[in-house]
Amino acid sequence: MGSLDAKPAETQELGIKDQAQLWNIIYGFGDSLVLRCAVEIGIADIIKNNNGSITLAQLASQLPIPIVNSDYLYRILRYLVHMNILEQETCNGGVDKVYSLKPVGTLLLRDAERSMVPIILGLTQKDFMVPWQFMKEGLESESTTAFEIGMGMTVWKFLEGHPDQSQLFNEEMAGETRLLTKTLFEDCGDAFQGLDSLVDVGGGNGTLIMAIYEAFPHIKCTLYDLPHVIANSHEYPNIEKVSGDMFKSVPSAQAVLLKMILHDWTDEECVNILKKCKEAIPKETGKVIIVDVALEEDSTHELTKTRLLLDIDMLVTTGGRERTVDDWENLLKRAGFRSHKIRPIRSIQSVIEAFP
């Protein structure tokens, strides 16, 4: 006879599932930092260079570490298997474990076309994780971000005064750009057809504008960013580099490109930027090409959580936001654009073309 206090099996199971859900959320930072460790020691590249599979002993002997604790390394590999980054098989009668990369693991290769290594290293660097500890304090202010509270200055002042961190940030942006570029051209290449000139506003080290020039060599391309960014940007043939402040002016061109720029800023600041862009393009044939998130709050799309997390990142770091389709329409109307169209692509971003 069962106890009167016994809970139905489904209720017990639900409780365990709830706990597991919260444990996974609590330790979510662990996934990021295990991944960072794997990237820092180059596990994916070593496996690739070892004909695609490797034993624990072989990997330990090839790591850029003088003395490797094999038990510690095994436990990290075990978790990477659990994360579906690595695949594990046994050989020699089950004595040795052999590790290989799952498809997602190829994104951890430093020389991969769509490598996510710069993004991983950029987003998990220590200084950029500190502000997340000040989210509660950030809620108490209408004008100060958690980054400012935690670091004592805006993210832009921080990057200007810390060249190494600025370089890492620009490498992260370049990595994100390489992840995007092929999809952008395949899904929305017609947005660049017929243009004779284009300026990439806030283009960082020039990764995207160079890719655009290589794909559309008839376009006169200009890279535009703050003086300290331009000073440290790559030298590209056929790309003009101009330094300045997008809040004050934008170089003239038939089209202006804003890739993941507007999500950094408040609505008022975005209207200001967009007005400067509108002044820089011809009224009849010009356009502003915005590559940014078009958030669908209730979507079941596999990237919805990432987009919502990116919105929290903007909340914490810059004071900006990710915007819905209605938000974009309101913003562009306020900036004086007569029409626009939004096209989703196979990426975290969409392409928004705004016409003066």
Instruction: Supply Rg.
Output: 24 Å
* Alpha-beta content class: alpha/beta
Percent of residues in β-strands? 15-25%
Mean pLDDT: 93
Low confidence ranges: none
Looking across the biggest beta sheet, what order are the strands in?
Answer: 6-5-4-7-8-12-11
Helix content: 40-55%
Q: Please report the total strand number as a whole number.
A: 12
CA(first)-CA(last) distance: 78 Å
Q: What would you call the quaternary organization?
A: single chain
Largest sheet: 7 strands, mixed
Order of helices and strands: HHHEHHEEHHHHHHEHEHEEHEEHEHEE
GO molecular function: O-methyltransferase activity; protein dimerization activity
Domain O-methyltransferase C-terminal: 132-338
Keywords: Alkaloid metabolism, Methyltransferase, S-adenosyl-L-methionine, Transferase
InterPro entries: COMT-like, COMT_C, COMT_dimerisation, SAM-dependent_MTases_sf, WH-like_DNA-bd_sf, WH_DNA-bd_sf
Features:
356 residues, alpha/beta, 16 helices, alkaloid metabolism
Written overview of the protein:
There is one protein chain. The mean pLDDT is 93. The chain is α/β, with parallel strands linked by helices and 356 residues long. Helix content is 46%, strand content 16%. One of its GO terms (biological process) is alkaloid metabolic process.
Q: What's the quick description here?
A:
With 356 residues, the protein is an alpha/beta fold. Strands 6-5-4-7-8-12-11 form a seven-stranded mixed sheet, with helices on both faces.
